[in-house]
Write a structure and sequence with these properties.
31% strand; globular
Length: 201
């Protein structure tokens, strides 16, 4: 995933996780600096699946699909924040249907909700049948990105202004997912704190 300039370096990934975990506890969004619509940052990416992208059965590698999802999501998040972004988490990913060599993959990303320095981006992945002019849903994911400046320090991001009923539903759902993530983050912290020094042996 390192070929795309908006994606994190290994050093910035650690910073992003620390920033994101802190923000999950601090829900104050009074410092938001602007408001933007979903349409302003929506992104789309297309890929033709080649043999090098596939396993021995001719199906797209799951890891390669995750890379495409991360890249497309980063484009939407960066457009919304108008800044560099780093990936903090990919907490939900569904593989609905296999993608085969030669198929045209279409990825569409939208910012579902923005918080203080982070954004949840939803990415929907489809295969387009160019002959039949039909789309087949193959995957969906929710990714959290953190906006950072050139020094890797988190910066405030604009709020999202949902305009349609579908966008308002995704906005509300993103808030509920954030609450669930906060619980899971706290549970993980407690589990790590309870691990003995020789836990990896």
């Amino acid at each position: 995933m390192g070929s795309f300039s908006l994606i994190e370096t290994s050093m910035n990934r650690k910073n992003a996780m620390a920033i994101y975990y802190t923000e999950l506890v601090d829900t104050n969004t009074d410092n938001q600096i602007a408001t933007r619509t979903v349409a302003e940052s929506q992104s789309e990416r297309s890929e033709i699946i080649m043999p090098a992208d596939a396993n021995s059965m001719g199906n797209l590698f799951g890891g390669r699909l995750m890379q495409y999802i991360d890249l497309c999501g980063a484009m939407a998040a960066s457009r919304h924040a108008r800044a560099h972004v780093v990936t903090a988490s990919m907490d939900h990913l569904d593989f609905v249907s296999p993608v085969r060599v030669g198929e045209l993959l279409i990825l569409k990303a939208s910012v579902n909700r923005a918080f203080r320095t982070s954004m949840e981006v939803g990415v929907r992945v489809m295969v387009e049948d160019v002959r039949e002019q039909k789309l087949r849903h193959v995957s969906s994911a929710y990714i959290t990105f953190v906006a950072v400046d050139k020094n890797g320090k988190s910066i405030a991001v604009p709020q999202i202004m949902p305009e349609t009923g579908h966008q308002r539903r995704r906005y509300a759902d993103a808030g509920r997912r954030r609450e669930l993530r906060a619980v899971e983050v706290q549970r993980s912290r407690e589990l790590r704190a309870a691990l003995p020094p020789e836990w990896h042996v």
